Amino acid sequence: MRDKSYIWISFIVLIFGIWAVPKIVKKFEKSDLLLIGAAPEFELIDQNQKKITNKNYEGKVYVLEFFFANCPTICPIMNQNMLKLQEEFYGNLKFGIASITIDPLRDTPEALKRHAEELGVKLPFWHMMTGDSKYIFELSNKFNLYAGANPEAPGGFEHSGLFALIDKEGNIRCRKDENGNPIVYYDGTADEGIEMIKEDIKLLLGE
Fold it and tell me: What pLDDT digit, counting tens, does each position of 86-126 carry?
């Protein structure tokens, strides 16, 4: 009887082990999100007058945008949607936000500090960054996120309302659309885009 009990216990442990191992391995698998390529490197100054580079985001999933504080059109919507991401992932030190101004003459570190406070930025790794105007426009081109000066545009600038999603290894990632094509970037002005990026941030945090 004792030998039979031992055999049954061993059998149960074996079956449980076979069932559990795939679940443990699954946790460390890559998600199905597409890899677009390495995000461009950058070096800028944030609202706390600290030098911030892409290396500050190593090991973190982060969302990157180009904006400006005095934008009268889409930026306020983008700001509110970034706040939704802050609320969703607040307390997770593996998540961050990179907001890069395209109006560095007005958006000094001091101005960005005021803007961050007015907006309600609390996330430790939400850096609002400024720098040389030419450098920033070249950086936006490298990301393929349009930004440019236009005296006839509201606020004097035009820019994309898209968000880039970057994984812990510094790669731009995205999901596929309904036709199986990469969306590349997420619409930072639409509720649908924010819900999609929330879901995909969670996937990347789990990698």
Answer: 999 999 999 999 999 999 999 999 999 999 999 999 999 99
Residues 115, 103: Cα–Cα separation, whole Å: 13
Is 115 assigned a ligand-binding role in the annotation? no
Cα 128 from Cα 116, distance rounded (Å): 8
Helical spans, DSSP H, in 27-148: 75-89, 109-119, 133-143
87 to each of 14, 43, 48, 83, 190, how far by Cα in Å? Answer: 43, 27, 21, 6, 17
Type of residue at 81: N
The annotation status of 174 as a binding-site residue, yes or no, is no
pTM over cut 0.70: yes
The residue length of the chain stands at 207
Nearest-angstrom CA–CA distance, 98 and 134: 18
DSSP state of 176: B
**Phi, psi (deg, nearest 5) at residue 37:** 155, 175
